[in-house]
Amino acid sequence: MGDQARDGAGRHRFLADAAARGITVELVERQAADSLAEAAGILGIRPADIVKSLVVKHKDGSFLFALVPGDRQISWPKLRQLLGVNKLSLPSADAAFAATGYERGTITPLGSTSAWPVYADSSITGRRISMGAGDHGCSAFVEADALTAALGAVVADITEPAQSD
Q: Is the CB of residue 21 less than 8 Å from the CB of residue 148?
C-alpha cells in the first residue's frame, strides 16, 4: 500500500473531491513530525487546530469518519449514544486503508474511496483547521464550517480531553 500512497494519488483524490464540493483548501508541504505538538509547531498552529480524521468501524461492518481536534480524543460513550449502538471500534491500519484508500496519517473524508458518514466534534466549528490531505508530508488548511457543510457531517459533542502521556 505504501507505493500507492507515495505516488500522489491520495493528494489528487483529496484535491479533486474538495474542488467538486466547492471547498477551498490550502495545501502545505511539510516535513515529517514525530508528534502532534511537533506537527503543530511546523505548521505554526495550536495542536487543537490539527483535526484528525479517524476511521471508526461500526458494529454492522460499515465505517464512519470522526473528525477530532488534536488535543482531544473520541469519547466512545458519546459516539455510541449518538449512533444508537453499543459497539464501535478502531479498525486495523490495513482495514482503514481498505475502507478509505488512505494510509494512517493521511486519512481524510475528502477523496476517500468510499463515502462513509462523517461525524465532526462541535469544537472544530467556526475556525480554520489543518487536516490530512491524502499523502504523507502534506497537510491542508480548510474552514471547518465549509468542510462539515460540504460533507453533510453530523456536528456533535463526540470527544473528551486527550489523556496526557
A: no
CA count, 13 A, side-chain hemisphere, 123: 20
Tell me the residue range of the domain where 126 lies: 2-161
Per-residue pLDDT tens digits for 15-64? 999 999 999 999 999 888 888 889 899 999 999 999 999 999 998 999 99
Report the distance separating Cα 54 and Cα 130, nearest Å: 14
Which CATH number fits the domain that encloses residue 95? 3.90.960.10
pTM of whole model > 0.85? yes
**31, 161 contact by CB (below 8 A):** no
DSSP E strands in 75-153: the ranges are 88-89, 118-121, 128-132, 138-143
